[in-house]
Write a structure and sequence with these properties.
This protein is mainly alpha-helical. The protein has helices at residues 10-38, 42-54, 61-67, 72-84, 106-126, 133-152, and strands spanning 58-60, 88-93, 96-104.
Length: 155
Amino acid sequence: MNATPHWLTSEQKVAWDSFIRMQETLIGRLSRLLQADSQMSASDYVVLVSLTERGGGRMRFLDLAKLVEWEKSRMSHQVRRMTTRGLVAREDCPDDGRGAFVVATPAGYQAIEEAAPLHVEHVRRLFIDALTPEELDTLGRISSRVLAHMEKQSD
């Protein structure tokens, strides 16, 4: 027997719908601008930023997938596309025959170095400048709280 759903209140629905619309519109617009400015997809950008800012230019394939919250198959397809374009290379892991590293190439470093300043300007113009410092602080705390809450939940 199915229990009656615990529907959102009208206030909760307004907050949720506004958040989703803002997030989808912002990500869509940033993705289009990134593509127009640098011929780089948002997925390319995420991988290169993760490699160059967090991974020292090199990360284990599965660690990279986990960091960006992607399934293994999605990461595999993305790395294959980026390898074809010379942005990353795949290297075998010497201590794990089944493992592999994803490595940013010189072309990958150049691409992210050229794309990042424009992307940050768009983020600032479309998102940061719309909020006060206090609102940004509150949003940061809310985002961290939701992320921590999700970590406690099972999928």
